[in-house]
Specification:
Structural class: alpha+beta
Low-confidence stretches: 4-32
Strand content: 25-35%
Strand order of the largest sheet: 2-3-6-8-7
CATH architecture of the largest domain: Beta Barrel
Number of helices: 2
Number of strands: 9
Shape: globular
Order of helices and strands: HEEEEEEHEEE
Helix content: 10-25%
Mean pLDDT: 83
Number of domains: 2
């Protein structure tokens, strides 16, 4: 048993070092970073699953936007209004009506998970759809979202509606 003991001790030490290295790299990742399975837009029509889609004018069926969240508001129709200050390079997504708390901001609407084959007839029906599987950011989070870039004809501002995918990380 004598010559095998140092070899076993060395093997155990190597396993401990390897385990410590792998756990330290996992710990260095942001614990808040979350995302959808694959960033990007869904294949369905931009208005799929949206109640009264005629209130939205599609400007681009798939658009990326990024920035820092200012406020998240739960709406009666089940949407989460995510107001965020856009990163440099995304200012062209805003129009003169895109303001929140007096400052330029873009709205991303995270909607309930309504069936894509049908559109809920109204806000009450949309509120009855299952909750979304998308992660919900908080103020100060940096987000990277994809979805249809639309003009909300009722409010006059541009928005990403619905948000098809989202990556959330701590603001830096």
């Amino acid at each position: 048993m004598g010559p095998r003991l140092p070899a076993l001790t060395l093997a155990a030490a190597l396993l401990l070092v390897a385990g410590a290295c792998s756990s330290s790299s996992a710990a260095s990742a942001s614990p808040r970073a979350t995302s959808t399975p694959s960033p990007g837009c869904r294949a369905e029509a931009p208005e799929a699953g949206v109640w009264q889609p005629d209130r939205l004018q599609v400007l681009k069926p798939c658009q990326r936007a990024a920035g820092v969240v200012v406020q998240v508001i739960r709406e009666p129709d089940g949407d989460r209004h995510v107001w965020f200050r856009v990163d440099a390079g995304y200012e062209s997504l805003l129009n003169a009506e895109n303001h929140f708390q007096g400052k330029p901001a873009l709205l991303g609407e995270i909607t309930p998970d309504c069936p894509l084959a049908t559109n809920p007839p109204d806000a009450n029906a949309a509120a009855e759809c299952p909750a979304t599987d998308l992660p919900i950011p908080g103020p100060g989070d940096h987000i990277d979202i994809y979805g249809p870039w639309v003009l909300d004809l009722d409010h006059g501002w541009n928005e990403i509606h619905p948000v098809d995918s989202i990556v959330i990380s701590d603001a830096g």
